[in-house]
Amino acid sequence: MIGREHSLTIPGVLSSRLAYIGLTLLLFGAALLFRFELPLEPFIDSDVGGYLEPALRQLTHGHFLQVEGRNFVYPGFIYLVLRVFPDFRAAAIIQHLLGLAAGGVLLACWNCARTLIKGAIIPAGFYRLCGLPVAALFLFNTSVIRLEHLIRPEAIFPFFAALNMLFNIQFIRYRYIELSYRASLVYGSANLFNACLLFFLKPSFYLGVGFSTLPIWFSLLDRKEPFQRKLAMIGVPALCISLFLLLPEKSIKAGDELSRTFLPTTLFVMHADIIRDQISRDLRDDVKTPYEKQFLEQTEALLAHEIELSKGTGRYRSLGFDPDYLMYEDSFDQKFQALFKSQQGAEDRIKFYYYYFFRAWTNQPGRMLTKVLRQLSILYNNIGKASPYKHEIELVGGRNYLNNCVVLDGKKSLSEILYAPLADFSSKSRELARVEPKLLQPGAVSWINGALLRTFSILIILMSVLLVMVVRNPRLRESYRLFALTIALFYSYSFANSLGIAIVHSLEITRYLTNQLIFCLLPQCMTLFLIAEIWGSWRGTGEAQMAPR
Hints:
Strand content: under 5%
Number of helices: 25
Strand order of the largest sheet: 1-2
Distance between the termini: 28 Å
Number of strands: 2
Order of helices and strands: HHHHHHHHHHHHHHHHHHEHHHEHHHH
Structural class: mainly alpha
Shape: globular
Helix content: over 70%
Largest sheet: 2 strands, antiparallel
Oligomer: single chain
């Protein structure tokens, strides 16, 4: 009887696995075709010089020079792509393939996360099937596909972000469930290196580096962990980070002055209204500062005038003025440089920008915190505001290729580089600017995106309540503790990334939010699953208690 039971079960298991594999291949095949409905020529924007110029100069003159304060990792990626395939279409193809791979890793995260539950109520087969629509919401999001089509690090960031989540799941599994030292060492070390790589791809992830590696730091604080294991966990990735990230970055950026001025200038102009008022206060109260009164009066007048002019652009409504205008146009930053007469004008300007940014924090912490909270509300107050799920239902190629032409015509440093694939790319962009290729987001994806957008903050609050319940209830804690803590960990990715941006910049830039989709989507869907699991667990317990004895 037992043998017959097994003979019936094994074919059923095999058929269900084959069906799942077939559905998965169908999903990713459809996602691949969906991506390539657009022309293969990539999109570019005004920041393309910092990402493209180092690669082109290496290809044409043999000198990889960092420009515009950008890190070397993504320009290095573009260089490798063009070195092997001297065609700009290859960059779009490879980035789309990495987008598909990100969806695959996202699906793997979903499937592996179930191993963190002891005695799950929902069957494994049904759980795996639920992962397919989760992956589909990422793979068929036209905002994500637009980023994949851009010459920007946001194109490949989601792949490495998904890897980070997978490494964390596997580290937690092998460290606390399987108790495998070697496996936990491999995944922990890979996670540390990958988290730093994410920072080099997107420096706005600077706070996310710490949050996305929290399980490793907790394990290192464990007194029972042998010192040799702690040393190995830190030493191997630290060596790799130094050799492959820090040292190349240090040597390459040595000749790029903007790498020194970009951050202090950004901090100053993003808080220009608060800093203007701080300078006015210092002048009114005759406060002693390192700067002469006449110089501060000129600075305050110039800043006030340029802030008023910047309001005419209509951008950055949450700030009330346009910091990009102050920084990049013939506006405050350029005019301010004329006030410095010393030979080390750049260094003096940097010191001044830092001095008044931190002085504003010291003397007006309330206003600075209000700015940060207002920026965070763009993400967490989702109704009528931007979010990672903000969807471009219709992605029109023509207007993007027209923007390509505008950018290429305005980038003198690029037009001076004689590189045949660049000329072909420019010519093809002009042809495509006259047509209107479109990519329409599936209606189901748009509808679910809307639902997830409106419930994002609600589910975070609900997850906090569930986490407390799981920790306090012994039965729930035994089954769901690691799964619930992992969900909270993934929510912290978005919080840390958004907080880092809110402190330095503004979340009004939609790519900052779209870039977070992959680590907002997974914990939100995992929260829904945990709700179903706990409800099923309570229902099962209630039925067992009511059953006749």
